[in-house]
Design brief:
alpha+beta, about 25% strand, about 425 residues, 6-stranded mixed sheet, 12 helices
Length: about 425
């Protein structure tokens, strides 16, 4: 099978490309054989889970997905003695080996994070996106159910003028974080829990508005965290150049909510770091994020079809499309809000208490954030490729920004 345009760009972008999602559960840890049996029962019929990357097909050295046979549950589902935090730190910069399906499900006895054990799915981003991870982990639950109904991304007929505006927005100059030089950056991972009452209070901001979505809160909190860590942009080296975050957008509609793979795009959003006041920054982020669905629709209806048509002329097209994003100045951060589909659920009678995401490690000078929600449990993961403790400092600063919103005078929006 030919890689999609999104698959190929994620494969060639020069990053390790490892992502993950863990479910933290209470109760006695199940035997690994029982976990393997559930995985075979629920995933064996999904062709994507048996795909192996073939990098040597054809005379031009292109890569394709091959399915040599069903996946081996003994090799793909393994017990892991490390904690979840240790597994995330060890996995984020280590691409999975070729020759077998590029995913692993780990059974972790010592989960921490309010549970007794965890199931952690790690995969190459070229194989699966974040929504796919959630779909797969939901499928392992005792009652998978129909899952959470998402609002489909609108796909209007987008003209050349809209496409031109979006191309201009995606190619505008940006700047990296004012951190260590590329040859001296460090990989770091930080996981923080956000109390539910803090998030609920924050979501009611701004007081005279409609309230904020989880995605808007995360983008606004990251803007505040960067200001707290590095100061206003006007003091940075390139003081007149914006700082952007990359916001992933799921392009699945009502007809394919459970589709596996990379049915997504990334929209580049400027961060209002120079605005004074956390509520003012949040309001600016809401204004910027309001345009994201329509911008994503331009990607889906115009830019992606054009890229797919163009890349049939040769692999150089994908390399050209990918080269612009292979710089930290394209997006100094990436921000992903991950909601668990459906109710909390159980795994072989064990109750789900929390989900924990692992966003991908990006280019030197960047930090990625994932805010995962399962019921009333909110968990932030920051992955840094910058200073030795930037992921920790920025994760703490994001939590502080939520606390600041929560301390603001009681809003009028309920």
């Amino acid at each position: 099978m030919r890689l999609s345009c999104a698959d190929e760009m994620l494969l060639l972008n020069g990053c390790p490309g490892v992502i993950g999602l863990a479910t933290v559960l209470t109760g006695e840890r199940p035997d690994v054989q029982r976990v393997r049996a559930r995985v075979v029962e629920r995933w064996a019929g999904l062709e994507r889970m048996s795909c192996v990357l073939d990098r040597a097909c054809g005379r031009r050295g292109c890569a394709r997905w091959a399915v040599p046979g069903p996946f081996d549950p003994v090799a793909q589902v393994v017990e892991e003695r490390a904690t979840l935090d240790e597994l995330w730190a060890r996995s984020v910069d280590r691409p999975l080996a070729d020759g077998v399906p590029p995913w692993r499900l780990y059974v972790i006895p010592d989960a921490e994070r309010g549970g007794d054990f965890a199931l952690a799915l790690v995969a190459q981003h070229a194989l699966l996106d974040g929504r796919s991870l959630a779909t797969l982990m939901r499928a392992l639950m005792d009652d998978p159910g129909p899952g959470r109904r998402e609002r489909p991304v609108p796909l209007p007929r987008s003209g050349l003028r809209a496409a031109g505006r979006e191309l201009k927005a995606m190619s505008a100059p940006g700047q990296a974080l004012p951190t260590w030089p590329p040859e001296r950056t460090y990989t770091s991972v930080a996981v923080r829990e956000l109390p539910a009452h803090i998030v609920r209070s924050a979501r009611r901001q701004p007081a005279d508005g409609r309230g904020a979505t989880l995605n808007e809160l995360l983008v606004g909190a990251v803007a505040g965290a960067l200001r707290a860590r590095f100061g206003p942009v006007r003091r940075w080296q390139e003081r007149d150049v914006p700082v952007y975050t990359a916001v992933p957008c799921d392009l699945r509609g009502r007809g394919n909510p459970g589709e596996l793979g990379n049915t997504l795009t990334v929209v580049r959003v400027p961060l209002p770091i120079d605005l004074d006041g956390s509520v003012a920054r949040l309001r600016a982020c809401q204004d910027a994020m309001a345009a994201v669905p329509d911008r994503a629709a331009v990607h889906a209806t115009v830019l992606f079809p054009a890229a797919e048509a163009a890349r049939r002329t040769g692999p150089w097209v994908t390399r050209l499309l990918t080269s612009r994003g292979r710089h930290s100045c394209f997006a100094a951060t990436a921000t992903t809000a991950m909601k668990w589909p459906g109710g909390p659920g159980t795994f072989q009678g064990r109750r789900l208490v929390r989900t924990v995401g692992l966003p991908p490690l990006q280019y030197p000078g960047t930090v990625s954030f994932a805010l995962a929600q399962a019921g009333d449990a909110f968990t932030l993961t920051a992955v840094g490729n910058a200073g030795p403790d930037d992921a920790i400092r920025l994760a703490d600063a994001v939590v502080t920004e939520f606390e600041t919103w929560a301390r603001t005078a009681t809003p009028s929006v309920l």
